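Hi all, posting the design record for the shared folder.

TITLE: backbone redesign
STEP: 1 of 1
STRUCTURE INPUT:
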């Protein structure tokens, strides 16, 4: 059957990854979480003491990009697909508030974006990929056969993310989550390289009052019309 690439963009916690994973499961597509890639680069910078709340030494990080190896693979312990940074599964580490609070500064650096986009192109070259992020429909796959742009109010998004973090046992307050989401919304939308914007040919969907199943049903219909067109 014909395979297509699907780009899902939007701000934090709009339901992109939930939808993307379900599409990938249903269609046997590869799911790529592009945000996890920027989170790994951020973690690497923190581990090397190049990045903290007051300082960001970009040059050594840019110089080390060839030493940062990223791969998506099954984590045998959790039976989930996770990202590996230089051979180590870092799924929990990259979801920490420390990384969340720093990642948008790292993701604004053009050299870093260039390296990530190169890898993302490679992942999508044979089609059959569903990728979520901020610039997938505009920069990474401008020719994706289906582009979705998910929206939802900041308060509902923060509540979703807060509950997710509680379940994972991460100690954080609702206000910290809300403030992180708002600050990333601002940085991601106002940066000069590949800002978060809706591609002109993306379908905008508000996920605030939609069940996961309802949304998936609508999107699967759209995909099937693209595949059969
Ligand atoms: O999980 P959540 O939606 O909160 O964020 P994410 O998808 O893990 O992305 C983390 C951060 O990476 C975003 O806030 C952006 O700063 C950056 N990012 C990006 O610049 N471009 C992408 N394609 C994906 C993420």
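Okay, here is what came back for every position:
SEQUENCE:
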């Amino acid at each position: 059957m014909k395979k297509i690439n699907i780009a899902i963009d939007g701000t934090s916690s709009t339901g992109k990854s939930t939808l993307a994973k379900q599409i990938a499961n249903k269609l046997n597509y590869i799911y790529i979480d592009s945000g996890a890639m920027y989170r790994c680069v951020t973690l690497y910078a923190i581990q090397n003491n190049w990045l903290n709340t007051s300082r960001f030494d970009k040059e050594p990080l840019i110089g080390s990009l060839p030493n940062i190896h990223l791969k998506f693979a099954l984590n045998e312990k959790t039976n989930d697909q996770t990202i590996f940074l230089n051979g180590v599964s870092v799924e929990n580490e990259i979801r920490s508030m420390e990384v969340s609070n720093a990642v948008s500064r790292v993701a604004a650096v053009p050299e870093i974006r260039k390296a990530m986009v190169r890898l993302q192109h490679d992942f999508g070259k044979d089609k059959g990929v569903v990728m979520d992020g901020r610039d997938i429909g505009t920069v990474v796959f401008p020719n994706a056969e289906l582009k979705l742009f998910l929206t939802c109010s900041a308060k509902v998004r923060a509540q979703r993310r807060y509950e997710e973090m509680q379940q994972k046992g991460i100690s954080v307050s609702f206000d910290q989550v809300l403030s992180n989401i708002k600050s990333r919304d601002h940085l991601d939308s106002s940066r000069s390289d590949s800002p978060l914007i809706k591609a002109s040919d993306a379908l905008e969907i508000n996920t605030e009052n939609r069940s996961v199943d309802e949304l998936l049903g609508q999107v699967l219909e759209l995909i099937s019309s693209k595949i059969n067109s």
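COMMENT: The mean pLDDT is 95.
Let me know if anyone wants the other runs.
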